[in-house]
Amino acid sequence: MFRALLARWRSSLRLFQPAKVHAHRAKISVTQVAHRYGNKVVALQDVNLNIRSGEFVCLLGPSGCGKSTLLYALAGHVVPTGGTVSIDGKPIHGPGPDRLLMFQEAALFPWMTVLGNLKFALAARGVPRAEREPRAREFIHRVQLSGFEDTLPHQLSGGMKMRASLARALAVDSAVLLMDEPFGSLDAQTRVHMQELLQNIWLRTSKTVVFVTHDVHEALMLGTRVVLMAPRPGRIVKDLEVHLPMPRSLEERNLNEMARYLRMLMRRVEGPEGALTPPRPIPEDQVGLRH
Ligand SMILES: Nc1ncnc2c1ncn2[C@@H]1O[C@H](COP(=O)(O)OP(=O)(O)OP(=O)(O)O)[C@@H](O)[C@H]1O
């Protein structure tokens, strides 16, 4: 019984591979990044991460492990107190049009219609006037909001607002999309629908996406890579490529086995022992298989 269980664990882990991305080919390169807030909290320590163009990387981890701080450092909204973040080999010193940050709140202008919100974002990005409306309408269509172009945000449901926000993020066409738990406030059904929508669009556009979540299933449904972080200090403890075909299903056995593995790692890093150990990666063969 134990042997059979062990064999199943091992075969499911084969679908997980430690990520190997060379810095010189990376779209995003994070080198020795550290961040200490004014209150002395060490939000990030010794963070190294290279992300290839077109990858969908999920930053996963318990509350307070520095996921958002790392995402904001990629966006240029947080200037790390140590280390470097580079895009296409060039160190960044602030926000730029090559990156777009999307939050949990839809953050639409309440006095503008859905179409107006998109056109405004396109204007702010310097898109010529004649191109704004057709492009805005195309992306409203892609997120299945056709018919709601002239609707004000307060007349939309939470899921619809988030779809409008996603349409706006995609329409401005930044090479890198940075998403901070964008579906965290949605009900379970709407959340799954949004995940499918995002994945469909990502499969067509091959944007580089960095997506923060503390939901293991969400990370596995979406990510080509899952980067697990631990708190106190915030650091990366695992970096795994997920070799499962897309679209994925929550019913898939392999996905559920991986979810169990990741949940077990999460429990370890959340626990007092994991939280107190110095930053070091957890060796693949010492994690998961003993339980
Ligand atoms: N502006 C700030 N000033 C001081 N400390 C901060 C600030 N923002 C975050 N922190 C602290 O830095 C650490 C990392 O926070 P961060 O928000 O990056 O984690 P997180 O993994 O995104 O958490 P969550 O999942 O709860 O959003 C936490 O201990 C948090 O309290």
From TrEMBL:
Source superkingdom: Bacteria
Gene Ontology molecular function, alphabetical: ATP binding
Assigned keywords, A-Z: ATP-binding, Nucleotide-binding, Transport
InterPro entries named among the record's database cross-references: AAA+_ATPase, ABC_transporter-like_ATP-bd, ABC_transporter-like_CS, ABC_transporter_ATP-bind, P-loop_NTPase
ABC transporter domain ranges (all copies): 28-256
Segments crossing the lipid bilayer: none
Pfam families given in the database record: ABC_tran
Keyword Transport: yes
Gene3D superfamilies per record: P-loop containing nucleotide triphosphate hydrolases (3.40.50.300)
CDD domains: ABC_NrtD_SsuB_transporters (cd03293)
Annotated region (Disordered), positions in chain: 272-291
This protein's record includes keyword Ligase: no
Protein name, entry field: ABC transporter ATP-binding protein
